[in-house]
Amino acid sequence: MLEFIRKIFKSEEPETKQVTGIELQNLEGWAREKSKPTTEEIKIRTDEILMKIDEELQRTRFNVEILENAKLQNPNIPFRAKQYMEGNRKSYAKSVNSFLGNLEINNRDYFYLVNFCKIAQNIKNFDNFFKELNSVLKDGRMVAIDSAIEKIRGLKAKAKQKINLDIELKDAEASVMLAKEEKDSLMAEIMNFDRGEEHNEFLRLNEERKDKTKSFYEDENRIIQSFSVLERPLRKYSHVAFEHEEIVLDYLKDPISTLADDKGMKILEILKNLENLLNENKVQIDDRKKEKALEETKKLSKEFIEQFMKKYFSFKAEIEGIDSRIKSSRVAEKLKDYNNKLEEVNIRIDKNNEEYAKLKNDFEKLNETILTLKNDVENSVKNLFGEEVKVVI
Length: 393
Hints:
Layout: H1 2-12, E1 19-23, H2 24-34, H3 36-69, H4 79-98, H5 110-137, H6 140-195, H7 197-229, H8 231-240, H9 245-253, H10 255-261, H11 266-279, H12 287-299, H13 302-329, H14 331-385, E2 388-392
Parallel strand pairs: 1-2
């Protein structure tokens, strides 16, 4: 009694279906093995129909041979008509043998009509057999098996594509890391160079050059301001002192360079002549500008100009010396080279990151496609063979 009750309760327990794990590379072979009963049944049915077709082929060939060898029942027909009928018979026999062309019956003789009808019946039988064969080949189970096999092949192709894409993705990732490591190494080299004595000396020289230029600029600016005030009077002077016209215009255009080139110090003579003309009111300008012009001519004394020229040539020599030391250090070239290398590696990093992002996106999309195909294959196998299968990729 207890055993009976246990059986009742046992029968009520839900059955747990076992899930079979199958490697993707073995799945097609497994599916073909599972589908053997169906494929063998289809093969038997197909072989039966093909045997009927073969028998019908033999009968057709026999009937065609009879037609080809048949004698005319009325030999007394005109030669031209006889020749026409013979040609028609050969053409028809050839068309039937190759299953091509159109069936044409031009002879109304009973004997020929009977043989033509036999061959027509053979062709009709072929039509029926091939319809039957087509029906067998389109059996729903076989179509489902073929569809499942195609899905498995498609999944295998995508899995292979994933392997290749994974290799490309890892290569792209390695390229990104390599370029970043190269940049880190370059940045460390640049930082060491920046902290080095060679670069510090380069910075010191540039700072010294900047300070000297700034200091000289104050003296230079005083000369420029003086000639700016004297511009109008000097222009008027150049109109009356033709021998000094060219050099006066040069001073007004670039007083510093002209002063450096004025080895004979003609400017002192010009300023003295201008001062005399101003005092004699021979230069037509208003009183206020006249007073300012006289002040500037007094400022630009021989001592002032000689002192400025001494500073100028000293400044030029010092700047040339500093520039020579800066150039010989080749630090500027090294910095330019570092900048070029840094720009190049940054471009490469951007390009590698872009390529990696694209490949990663393609890889994720391919994974989604594979997952969809995998689920589709597992469902197809379950519907075909009634088994839960887990495809292992």
